[in-house]
Amino acid sequence: MAVPESAKEDVKIILNGFYGHDFADRININKKVVEVVSEMILSAESCSRSIDLVPRPAGVKPALAWVFRQLANMARRVVNNDGVYIMCKNEVARQYRRHIEQASMGF
Fold it and tell me: What's the distance, CA 70 to chain centroid?
């Protein structure tokens, strides 16, 4: 099955967000690229969900009230699905760049 033009445009937008126009414009969007980009997005989301569950630094020895605030903030981040953290985006982009290039070439 061929990749619809609308899906190709969506993948280009995603690639642009992760890598910039130069990279996105030179990628030949095919079924394999779509599969790799899908995996990349799931990986970025998984990373961000994991970070949502990490308490933020206290700076000093935390009081019990700080623990309760952190738990509330973690729950809010999970419920609101606050997006992808830049550190996750950057690491996932680094990990998947070569895979996307190879998929674009048919490997």
Answer: 24
Q: How far apart are the first and last CA of the chain?
A: 18
Please, are residues 82 and 52 in contact by the beta-carbon 8 Å criterion? yes
Among 36, 50, 44, 41, CA closest to 104: 36
Which one is predicted more confidently, 80 or 49?
49
For residue 41, what are the domain limits?
5-104
Half-sphere exposure of 107 (CA within 13 A, CB side): 6
What digits encode the pLDDT tens for the residues 39-55?
Answer: 999 999 999 989 988 88
Overall number of domains in the chain:
1
